[in-house]
Fold this sequence. Notes:
Helix content: 25-40%
Order of helices and strands: HEEHEHEEH
Largest sheet: 5 strands, mixed
Low-confidence stretches: none
Oligomer: single chain
Number of helices: 4
Radius of gyration: 15 Å
CATH superfamily: Cytidine Deaminase, domain 2
Number of domains: 1
CATH class: Alpha Beta
Strand order of the largest sheet: 2-1-3-4-5
Shape: globular
Number of strands: 5
CATH topology: Cytidine Deaminase, domain 2
CATH architecture: 3-Layer(aba) Sandwich
Mean pLDDT: 95
Distance between the termini: 42 Å
Amino acid sequence: MDNRELLNKALDVIKYSYSPYSHFPLGVALLTKSGKVYTGTNIENASYGLTICAERVAMFKAISEGERSFSKIVIVDKDGKGVPPCGACRQVMVEFSPDMEILLYSPEKDSFEIFKASEMLPISFSLEVKDE
Length: 132
């Protein structure tokens, strides 16, 4: 799936965002290494700590269905502008796919800026499992 198709899928799901507090709906399209696409939107809550970002919605949907490796993700607002992920989302991305591409679209330039998840969170938490 090409970047524009992912962008269109991300734009299409923004209508499902529940963002009555921030008024900042986001849409995400996540491509797994197996070729499946999962979408997500941000879901807010009056108790702000219970809010979940669009990126984690898509990733957790994929993970709950057995996916563990991701190729790329597009994150956009209602105007089609790319939005960088928050720190919590970056940590989840790096946990599963540090080489995943994060695509931020610029409507003004009609182009994508592309980052690797590990570039966006160079020093992440990790669990080193050592053989004993």
